[in-house]
């Protein structure tokens, strides 16, 4: 039987050397690349089981995103391009942590309880980032899938959102596009060109942008995309692999350090973007003529996109409910602006893309972004159909119909499966262009409250438990009352603490009307956690 030989290969060629336990968390498995060989082989086996259960193609992405070059990780992608179903995260952890001797038993058990028909076919798409450890890890996945009789398509180096896109395309028979890199670039560039029309400049908008590729896959994929849109947008690409991956550059560095990345020459007032190591996050920034750095993060992108979608929905007179989803990290000013100025319903959920994604799916059009720059727009099937119908309805007023057509093309520009830095960038560029805005106009929509993030190391971070989308602490007893007392002393003060899902630390977030107050508030709350 194939299972027996596949498990034999696991023990012989991909042994689990140490007893270190590892958990499938918010971002899949992620740790030092040297500890991952057996995990990747086993995830190849799991992907085959998942594929048989869903009778669909499953994706396996090898990346550690914004983490250092020495790290790596793996994530499974479900049939419609979503993250792996939550109940399977536990199966993944169990398989990764079972000893070589128990692996067969663990798999048998799973096959039995889930009633998996091993005679079914299995299809797995594999992709990886640019890390030097990634090819060998991809090989381990491919070996496992093949050993269990599954069929593999290896896409080589791709961005995480590209692999999500390939998976959904494959499983919806091309309805969403062609499951190839060419299909992906074609879909994005066609929609972008259509939205932009003949005039590449408009008002204060200049079609010129600096791109920080974090020395990862984003840079080479941006080059390919740029080739399709070069007459419409001039993208100058930096950090395209000559330096260390994510080192002093990339979206995470720029967001956390609140400063410009290394390796990108300063051009005053020029729109600049930084993506992360697998190009699923993006932040904008610029340096003004006084050399002051300005960050436009995920909250900014969310407000810009949501307001533009809203504008088109209204102009096309469609009855669609539009909402925006954030986490506790969203700047208080952005939440205020969404609710009071844009008058768009706003929801708050716990950290982690899957929580935002699920909540966004409750709206006809749900825009979600984490402040760190990960986000997208989810459009319900019924909403897409309504938009398509209006776009071709000859009986509608010209204005109304054209707005619906524009909305339809805008939806085409979105990678709805997951945050996609390249798609998000083209969306932002579309809105700025349509409004004739430069980046300072965008910044002027509201002012961020100064804020500070801190890490606190305590003996056991699990003693910290939260509720209300991580905004309130319910354990240890008394901590929330103490935080309330501290926050009360600060004008427009807000602070929360939560255990990290990716590091052994407790995170502290604070905001207030001045930077020094935000810093003091964060420090006081951090002391209360100790
Ligand atoms: C993971 C999450 C990201 C979240 C971050 C928080 C996914 C794909 N990624 O990277 O959304 O912002 O964790 O990390 O869900 P933390 O729990 O250490 O603060
Ligand atoms: Zn990433």
TrEMBL record:
Example GO BP: UDP-N-acetylglucosamine biosynthetic process
A family per Pfam: AMG1_III
Chain ranges of the Phosphoacetylglucosamine mutase AMG1 domain: 204-283, 297-437
EC number: 5.4.2.3
Cofactor note text: Binds 1 Mg(2+) ion per subunit.
Sequence ranges assigned to domain Alpha-D-phosphohexomutase C-terminal in this UniProt record: 484-527
Amino-acid positions noted as binding substrate in the UniProt annotation, renumbered to this chain: 370-372, 498-502, 507
Positions annotated as active site in the UniProt record: 65 (phosphoserine intermediate)
Enzyme class label: isomerase
Domain spans labelled Alpha-D-phosphohexomutase alpha/beta/alpha: 54-101, 119-169
Pathway: Nucleotide-sugar biosynthesis; UDP-N-acetyl-alpha-D-glucosamine biosynthesis; N-acetyl-alpha-D-glucosamine 1-phosphate from alpha-D-glucosamine 6-phosphate (route I): step 2/2
Catalytic activity annotation: N-acetyl-alpha-D-glucosamine 1-phosphate = N-acetyl-D-glucosamine 6-phosphate
Protein name: Phosphoacetylglucosamine mutase
């Amino acid at each position: 039987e194939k299972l027996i030989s596949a498990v034999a290969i696991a023990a012989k060629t991909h042994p689990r050397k140490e007893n270190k336990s590892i958990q499938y968390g918010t971002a899949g498995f992620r740790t030092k690349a040297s500890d991952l060989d057996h995990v990747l082989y086993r995830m190849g086996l799991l992907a085959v089981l998942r594929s048989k259960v869903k009778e669909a193609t499953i994706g396996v992405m090898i990346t550690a995103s914004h983490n250092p070059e020495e790290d790596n990780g793996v994530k499974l992608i479900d049939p419609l391009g979503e993250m792996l179903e939550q109940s399977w995260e536990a199966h993944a952890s169990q398989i990764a942590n079972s000893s070589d001797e128990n692996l067969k038993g663990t798999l048998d058990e799973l096959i039995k309880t889930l009633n998996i028909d091993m005679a079914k076919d299995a299809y797995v798409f594999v992709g990886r980032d640019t890390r030097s450890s990634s090819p060998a890890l991809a090989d381990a996945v491919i070996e496992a899938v093949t050993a269990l009789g599954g069929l593999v398509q290896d896409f080589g180096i791709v961005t995480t959102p590209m692999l999500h896109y390939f998976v959904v395309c494959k499983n919806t028979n091309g309805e969403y596009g062609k499951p190839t890199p060419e299909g992906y670039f074609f879909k994005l560039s066609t929609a972008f060109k259509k939205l932009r029309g003949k005039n590449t400049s408009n008002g204060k908008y200049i079609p010129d942008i600096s791109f920080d590729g974090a020395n990862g896959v984003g840079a080479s994929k941006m080059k390919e995309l740029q080739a399709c849109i070069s007459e419409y947008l001039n993208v100058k690409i930096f950090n395209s692999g000559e330096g260390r991956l994510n080192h002093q550059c990339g979206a995470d560095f720029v967001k956390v350090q609140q400063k410009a990345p290394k390796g990108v020459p300063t051009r005053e007032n020029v729109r600049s973007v930084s993506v992360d190591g697998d190009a699923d996050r993006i932040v904008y920034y610029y340096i003004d003529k006084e050399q002051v750095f300005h960050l436009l993060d995920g909250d900014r992108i969310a407000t810009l996109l949501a307001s533009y979608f809203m504008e088109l929905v209204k102009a096309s007179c469609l009855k669609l409910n539009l909402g925006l989803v954030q986490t506790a990290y969203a700047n208080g000013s952005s939440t205020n602006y969404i609710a009071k100025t844009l008058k768009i319903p706003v929801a708050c959920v716990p950290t982690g893309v899957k929580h935002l994604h699920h909540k966004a799916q409750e709206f006809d059009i749900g825009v979600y972004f984490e402040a760190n720059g990960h986000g997208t727009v989810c459009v319900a099937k019924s909403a897409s159909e309504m938009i398509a119908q209006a776009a071709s309805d000859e009986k509608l007023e010209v204005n109304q119909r054209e707005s619906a057509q524009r909305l339809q093309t805008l939806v085409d520009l979105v990678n709805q499966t997951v945050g996609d830095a390249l798609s998000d960038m083209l969306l932002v560029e579309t809105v700025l262009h349509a409004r004739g805005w430069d980046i300072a106009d965008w910044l002027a929509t509201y002012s961020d409250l100064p804020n500070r993030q801190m890490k606190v190391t305590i003996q056991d971070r699990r003693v910290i438990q939260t509720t209300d989308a991580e905004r309130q602490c319910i354990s240890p007893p008394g901590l929330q009352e103490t935080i309330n007392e501290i926050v009360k002393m600060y004008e427009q003060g807000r602070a929360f603490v939560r255990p990290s899902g990716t590091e052994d630390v407790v995170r502290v977030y604070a905001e207030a009307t001045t930077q020094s107050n935000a810093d003091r508030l964060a420090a006081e709350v951090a002391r209360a956690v100790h």
